Recover the amino acids of this structure.
């Protein structure tokens, strides 16, 4: 198995380690926030980029057929999902793509549904475009989350919802949705003519015993599903700014292409294409190594919390490398930020970033780092919450 190499990323202009002061107003924190990994990308990616850099000519890049083949093969082999080349459109990231889809497929004042806790840009892409956020929170029992179909149906019926943004697997709660759950959601969207946007950026970070089902692979309502994915979470390539918009329906494609002509961002940098192609072609062994570390870190942290902070509730991590922890019994009589920063010395994602007050005692911890950092974080939590 390819060796997974941990990098000391301090002073490398990386957001996670070098952007702490800007984000948290404090320097001496252990960073487990923004969703990237502290591991070197697969060796094949580094080699391919070095070769390209060595040539020293960086004129306009022509995307080769082999790029599309690499992605299409990956989807088929890993997810049993048959993607056609003509469905694929470029975006520099999944977040820009979310903004574009809201602009392209909804009108001002339209209602766009999400389910909190939700990745913060889900709010921004709706609100910043003058659309209305319609939130139907997930239902939570003892740290296990499900969609609230009855409430979703009631609101879809009453409020002319135009779009639902699904996160699959789900950041921050770590659920991998089952086929029957997705079918139920898709049926609701179909019944009320709601466009389903499936953010599947975490699709390859799936823990043992779970199976990722791309929404578009189910074969129902495919003319009203737009999927978004990327190699960025899978292979730690966020900086390569290369994401996929998948539009299986011709009419949706035409609408999107009209929109895209006006913003004219059709293609990214050669560096991004080369990194992504090589990762899909040669990165599987590396990914398996990283998944093993994530699983080990999760088991370590979960056992630690069960033993040392028994009143905390850890959500079962099925997918993503983001652990969602309810610390209410330990934080409810404290200043949350002061405790986590001044006493625990942690830079984590605060629960309220994902949907406000209801989540203010939750934290999201990024597990994609070396186990020593997770062990340190757990000790810090224990000491700081005492
Ligand atoms: C659900 C989800 N969507 C999108 C992104 C970011 O996408 P990008 O960097 O491609 O814009 C993240 C990153 O954490 C994420 O968790």
């Amino acid at each position: 198995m390819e060796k997974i190499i941990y990098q000391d990323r301090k002073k490398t202009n990386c957001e996670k380690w070098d952007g702490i002061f800007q984000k948290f107003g404090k320097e001496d924190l252990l960073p487990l926030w923004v969703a990237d990994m502290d591991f070197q990308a697969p060796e094949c990616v580094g080699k391919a980029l070095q070769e390209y850099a060595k040539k020293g000519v960086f004129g306009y890049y022509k995307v080769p057929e082999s790029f599309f083949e690499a992605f299409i093969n990956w989807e088929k082999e890993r997810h049993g999902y048959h993607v056609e080349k003509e469905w694929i459109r470029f975006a520099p990231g999944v977040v820009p793509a979310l903004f574009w889809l809201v602009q392209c497929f909804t009108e001002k004042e339209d209602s766009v549904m999400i389910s909190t806790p939700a990745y913060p840009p889900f709010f921004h892409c709706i609100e910043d475009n003058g659309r209305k956020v319609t939130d139907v929170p997930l239902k939570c029992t003892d740290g296990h989350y499900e969609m609230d179909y009855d409430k979703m149906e009631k609101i879809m019926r009453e409020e002319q919802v135009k779009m639902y943004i699904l996160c699959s697997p789900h950041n921050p709660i770590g659920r991998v949705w089952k086929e029957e759950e997705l079918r139920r959601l898709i049926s609701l969207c179909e019944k009320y003519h709601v466009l389903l946007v499936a953010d599947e950026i975490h699709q390859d970070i799936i823990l043992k015993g779970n199976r990722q089902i791309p929404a578009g692979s189910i074969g129902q309502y495919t003319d009203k599903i737009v999927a978004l994915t990327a190699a960025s979470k899978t292979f730690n390539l966020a900086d390569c700014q290369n994401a996929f918009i998948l539009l299986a329906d011709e009419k949706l494609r035409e609408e999107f292409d009209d929109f895209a002509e006006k913003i004219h961002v059709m293609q990214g940098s050669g560096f991004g294409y080369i990194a992504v192609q090589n990762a899909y072609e040669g990165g599987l062994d590396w990914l398996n190594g990283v998944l093993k570390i994530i699983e080990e870190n999760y088991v370590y942290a979960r056992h630690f919390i069960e033993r040392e902070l028994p009143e905390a509730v850890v959500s079962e991590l099925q997918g993503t490398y983001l652990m969602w922890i309810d610390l209410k019994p330990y934080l409810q009589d404290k200043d949350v930020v002061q405790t986590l920063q001044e006493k625990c010395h942690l830079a984590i994602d605060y629960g309220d970033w994902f949907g406000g007050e209801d989540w203010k005692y939750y934290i999201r911890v990024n597990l994609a780092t070396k186990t020593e950092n997770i062990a340190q974080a757990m000790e810090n939590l224990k000491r700081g919450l005492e």
Notes: Residues 47-282 form a domain with the Aspartate Aminotransferase; domain 2 fold (CATH 3.40.640.10). The longest strand covers residues 161-167. The longest helix spans residues 284-308.
